[in-house]
């Protein structure tokens, strides 16, 4: 049995056999190559992290073993599928270079692995907050309307993500300040006053349409920062121009594309391919499509070159001077319209530099076909952005953050990771928690999917899916992600796609047309806003717990959200009869057990089974959030539950305030104090809640249960540097243990 597997680890966390295909690919809705959807683990996804950990491989020994295959091309793994008991690994190009790790526990393996690939530096606190993005916030008014919608409805928000809509005609590093986003600095300042930080989508393509004011294009040509169009020569000459054929997959069908005669749909897509092909004096000409006729032709920066990376980092100056706070790195492969390269990326035979093979820059032996070092480009993209932001004068003494769409193992040093363009389906929800936990086993810290799903359930087939996520699905997704590290609601809101996905918009839509909603579904529509508000506020009340885990990651490499095999390795049943919980329970740090419901209410009436790992005992989580009051409170602890217990709970969807805490069951591990073996830890928000989108830093509260029942108990408070809050000096009385 093995777990890990990076982004592809979603269907089942613990795998007895599987086939894995690591090859960075713009695989919208995870269904392009095999056409089976997100539960098919063979699908190559956006990020390559070929690392897996074998559990109980040596039953009579405590030792655990993990493997990392280090290769930038394509890696395929047959784990006990075609040959039982065998692990077969193949690389498409380059050596089969792998690292084997052995230690006594999963946590120690992660520490070893992360010490080699690198660990992230401490990120800003707002990264752990609630974020909103939409491909469709294409005017200043739409951005501000969404932001004020959250503020007025008392749903905390820390981040606003503005897509390429912000740009002047899809010119990277620009802002359309003349039309759609007039006075951008004023807009970003207004958002900041609401407590909301802003970012935008930066794609590694430079629009080649001439412009007197586009300095990035002009400098790229002048100083030679673009990939030139030189093709691979195998000794018999390059492939003749009229025999060039690009390949791609869509919905399980392999496509063969003739670049001489087939072009993209966006303006400027027409050009003479024969003029550019294998002409080392011309920059390679590609293009990026953003759906339908949206997009632009462009050149691609030579990011495998150190000088170009430095230049790339300098391009961020203007947009950060306008008030941006962090970066959303998208289309990282780089993703290219299928008519301009292979697998929606660079042409396989296009020659690119490779700074991973030698310390020499610009030497002939450094040139490699793109297919041989496929994932190196995205790795260097994130590196260039991170190093560039750290050198900006406007960012002096500030911590920077990048959320990226895919790269290669070790890119976590530069950026967080979101798992690409998913869809509003229950299958995508099903794999989304496991994706985070699997990537966490690989030492990734800030990881998450698009909460609620980016694409409609039917993708671009408008007749197959609605214009919004199902209310029940969005509720369950918010609850499941309420304590996972990256928490961004993100959706496709362009014409013909979704109409909305903000939680408060479900209330507004229902109120505008109540008769249009079937009577049996009305309670779900009216439950979205209060339930999502409750669990977002709960997250903010526990933000210090997340932040502490993020801080500790710098030293131990452990993730914020952890699989139970990391935190509860002494419970052997997790690899046997209780292995089912690995797919739907997770720990935050070592303290808080979260048990989200991952299925429709119709499956089990909103009930779910719970298993509490042994040998520790547990308490039902006792923090309560009052949606109508700025102060939150703890209720008396219920009876201690011994580890190893299995039971069923009622977690059905209901908007009654008294029941909200039950919709996502949570439990606190009983701890151990220096003076007493009987200690329960609860986490309590004691400071006032800031409705402008922030939260006063929290307190770690420890209540010792060896005091007399019915009497107030002292609380032990750890104040974090710079913290100001109102502290009550007595906690509620504890019941009999």
Question: What labels describe this entry?
Answer:
single chain; 737 residues; alpha+beta; TIM Barrel; 9-stranded parallel sheet; 21% strand; globular; disordered C terminus
Q: Sheet bearing the most strands, described? A: 9 strands, parallel
Number of helices: 15
Q: How far from one another are the termini?
A: 38 Å
Task: Kindly report the name of the CATH homologous superfamily of one domain.
Answer: Glycosidases
Instruction: Report the strand count.
Output: 39
Strand line-up of the largest beta sheet: 23-22-21-18-10-9-8-25-24
In the predicted model, the low-confidence regions spanning at least 5 consecutive residues are 672-737
**Shape, per Cα inertia axes:** globular
Proportion of residues in β-strands: 15-25%
| CATH C-level label of one domain | Alpha Beta
Q: Work out the helicity level.
A: 10-25%
Summarize model confidence as the mean pLDDT. 89
């Amino acid at each position: 049995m093995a777990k890990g597997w990076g982004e592809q680890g979603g269907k089942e966390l613990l795998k007895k056999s599987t086939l894995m295909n690591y090859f960075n690919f713009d695989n919208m809705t995870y269904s392009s190559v095999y056409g089976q959807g997100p539960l098919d683990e063979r699908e190559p996804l956006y990020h390559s992290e070929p690392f897996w950990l074998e559990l109980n491989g040596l039953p009579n020994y405590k030792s655990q073993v993990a493997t990392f295959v280090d290769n930038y091309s394509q890696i395929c793994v047959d784990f006990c599928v075609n040959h039982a008991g065998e692990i077969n690994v193949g690389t498409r190009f380059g050596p089969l270079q792998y690292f084997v790790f052995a230690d006594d526990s999963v946590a120690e393996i992660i520490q070893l692995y992360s010490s080699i690939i690198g660990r992230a530096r401490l990120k800003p606190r707002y990264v752990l907050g609630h974020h909103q993005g939409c491909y469709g916030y294409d005017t200043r008014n739409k951005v501000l309307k969404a932001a004020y919608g959250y503020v007025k409805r008392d749903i905390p928000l820390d981040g606003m993500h503005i897509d390429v809509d912000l740009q002047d005609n899809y010119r990277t590093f620009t802002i359309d300040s003349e039309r759609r986003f007039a006075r951008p600095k004023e807009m970003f300042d207004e958002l900041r006053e609401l407590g909301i930080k802003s970012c935008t989508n930066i794609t590694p393509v430079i629009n080649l349409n001439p412009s007197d004011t586009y300095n990035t294009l002009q400098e790229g040509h002048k100083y030679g920062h673009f990939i030139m169009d030189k093709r691979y020569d195998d000794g018999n000459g390059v492939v003749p121009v009229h025999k060039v054929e690009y390949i791609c997959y869509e919905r399980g069908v392999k496509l063969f594309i003739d670049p001489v005669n087939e072009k993209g749909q966006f303006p400027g897509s027409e050009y003479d391919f024969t003029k550019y092909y294998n002409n080392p004096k011309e920059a390679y000409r590609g293009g990026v499509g953003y759906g339908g006729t949206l997009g632009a032709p462009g050149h691609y920066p030579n990011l495998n070159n150190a000088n170009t990376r430095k230049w790339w980092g300098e391009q961020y100056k203007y947009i950060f001077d306008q008030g941006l706070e962090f970066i959303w790195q998208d289309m990282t492969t780089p993703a290219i319209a299928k008519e301009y390269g292979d697998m929606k990326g660079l042409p396989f035979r296009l020659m690119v530099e490779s700074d991973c093979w030698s310390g020499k820059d610009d030497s002939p032996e450094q040139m490699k076909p793109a297919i041989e070092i496929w994932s190196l480009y995205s790795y260097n993209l994130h590196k260039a952005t991170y190093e560039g932001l750290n050198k900006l004068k406007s960012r002096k003494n500030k911590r920077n953050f990048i959320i990226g769409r895919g790269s290669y193992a070790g890119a976590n040093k530069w950026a967080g990771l979101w798992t690409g363009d998913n869809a509003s389906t229950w299958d995508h929800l099903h794999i989304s928690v496991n994706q985070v936990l699997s990537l966490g086993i690989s030492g990734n810290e800030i990881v998450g999917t698009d909460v609620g799903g980016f694409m409609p359930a039917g993708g671009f087939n408008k007749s197959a899916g609605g214009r919004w996520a199902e209310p029940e699905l969005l509720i369950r997704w918010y609850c499941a992600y309420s304590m996972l590290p990256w928490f961004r609601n993100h959706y496709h809101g362009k014409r013909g796609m979704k109409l909305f996905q903000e939680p408060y918009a479900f209330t507004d839509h229902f109120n505008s047309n109540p008769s249009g909603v079937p009577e049996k579904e009305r309670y779900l529509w009216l439950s979205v806003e209060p339930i999502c508000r409750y669990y977002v506020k709960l997250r903010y009340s526990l933000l210090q717990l997340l932040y502490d885990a993020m801080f500790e990651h710098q030293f131990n490499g452990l993730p914020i959200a952890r699989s139970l095999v990391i935190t509860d390795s002494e419970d052997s049943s997790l690899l046997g009869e209780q292995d089912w919980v690995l797919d739907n329970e997770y720990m935050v740090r070592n303290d808080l057990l979260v048990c989200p419901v991952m299925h429709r209410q119709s499956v089990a009436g909103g009930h779910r089974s719970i298993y509490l790992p042994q040998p520790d005992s547990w308490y039902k989580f006792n923090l309560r959030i009052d949606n109508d009051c700025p102060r939150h409170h703890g209720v008396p602890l219920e009876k201690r539950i011994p580890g190893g217990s299995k039971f069923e709970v009622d977690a059905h969807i209901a908007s009654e305030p008294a029941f909200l805490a039950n919709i996502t069951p949570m439990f606190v591990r009983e701890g151990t104090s220096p003076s007493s073996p009987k200690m329960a830890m609860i986490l309590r928000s004691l400071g006032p809640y800031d409705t402008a989108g922030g939260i006063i830093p929290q307190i770690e509260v420890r209540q010792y249960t060896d005091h007399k029942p019915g009497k107030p108990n002292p609380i032990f408070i750890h104040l974090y540097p710079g913290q100001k809050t109102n502290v009550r000096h007595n906690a509620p009385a504890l019941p009999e243990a």
